[in-house]
Specification:
This protein is of the alpha/beta class. The termini are far apart. The longest helix is centred in the first third of the chain and has 18 residues, at 88-105. Helix content is 34%, strand content 19%. It has one domain (23-300): Arginase, Chain A, CATH 3.40.800. It has helices spanning 2-5, 49-58, 88-105, 119-122, 124-127, 156-163, 183-190, 206-217, 250-264, 283-300, and strands at 24-34, 63-64, 69-70, 75-80, 108-113, 133-138, 168-175, 194-197, 222-228, 268-272. Helix 9 links the parallel strand 9 and strand 10.
Length: 301
């Protein structure tokens, strides 16, 4: 009688033997969390995001009729980088080595941040040995600051460009008005970074699609897509460090990301700057998971 009355704790209430989740296993997407947020000068908590986004991602069903059917690759969860709290030197070295493993293990490496400074580490293996990278960044900010002291997640892109001159072609899509110091616009222009402000997309996402096409035509040895969740409107992504009242609509983001994944065929993708401590009903974590799923689906097809 016990077998009919009891079930293991945590079992789903809906008992559908033909239900399924994203396929698991090696050889497709290598998933890696980087629970680091010590570079944030505003609202901490992004270190908690890998667990939330991972749970949302791996709970998704594999069927996407809008993209032609089933999820085309398996997902191998490598776990999280063992961070050294407050120590970017130790954590960065570990993250770079773990990223190397992720690139070896999967056709696409998917990284779960953490604040945006993790991209400084996760893109590094693609630039080793003289490699070049076409980089699409979805972000409300330039992330090219210089600070007098301390750490900031708003300087990672400037650091990568300085460390690897001439080996990146970058487009930043979604930069917000009234959200950045004026000197960064000139710095981005001199560095050859193409910036597509959010205001240019109010009439449609074509300027962003054209920027992606220019990245694809550059002929880099690898491509990378970085999705900072604060590029989205605060109404859709409230759980971020720097909320953006007039950011992109998720439908606009999906259109850009699908085009980018198909054109660039990225080796690496990340979602960053989810802050679960200020989220509303895990809505930002779940949206991050779905945006990542769309991107990976197109990249693997």
């Amino acid at each position: 009688m016990g077998e009919t009355l009891l079930q293991p704790p945590g079992s789903p209430l809906l008992r559908d033997p033909r239900d399924s989740r994203l396929p698991r296993g090696p050889g497709g997407v290598a998933l890696l969390g980087v629970p680091w947020d010590w570079n944030v000068s505003g609202v901490p908590g992004a270190r908690l995001a890998p667990a939330r986004v991972r749970r949302a991602l791996l709970s998704l069903r594999p069927h996407a009729p809008g993209l032609g059917g089933g999820f085309p690759c398996s997902v191998e969860d490598l776990g999280d980088v063992r961070v050294a709290p407050g120590d970017p030197g130790v954590t960065g070295a570990r993250a770079v080595e773990a990223a190397r493993l992720a690139y070896r293990r999967g056709r696409v490496a998917a990284f779960l941040g953490g604040d945006h400074s993790i991209t400084r580490w996760t893109i590094e293996p693609l630039l080793e040995g003289g490699g070049s990278v076409s980089l699409l960044v979805m972000d409300a900010h330039y992330d090219m600051r210089s600070v007098e002291e301390g750490l900031t997640s708003g300087s990672w892109l400037w650091e990568v460009l300085q460390a690897h001159p001439g080996r990146l072609k970058v487009a930043v899509v979604g930069v917000a008005d009234y959200a950045n110091p004026p000197y960064l616009e000139e710095r981005a222009r001199r560095a050859g970074v193409e910036v597509v402000p959010r205001a240019r997309l109010l009439g449609g996402v074509e300027p962003a699609l054209e920027a992606v096409d220019r990245l694809a035509e550059w002929g880099a040895s690898a491509s990378y897509i970085s999705v900072d969740m604060d590029h989205l409107a605060q109404a859709h992504a409230p759980g971020v460090n720097a909320p953006n009242p007039l950011g992109l609509d998720p439908r606009e983001s999906v259109e850009v990301l699908l085009h980018a994944a198909r054109r660039l065929r990225p080796r690496g993708v990340d979602v960053v700057e989810v802050t679960p401590t200020v989220d509303v009903g895990d809505s930002t974590s779940r949206l991050a998971a779905v945006l990542l799923a769309y991107t990976l689906h197109a990249a693997c097809s």
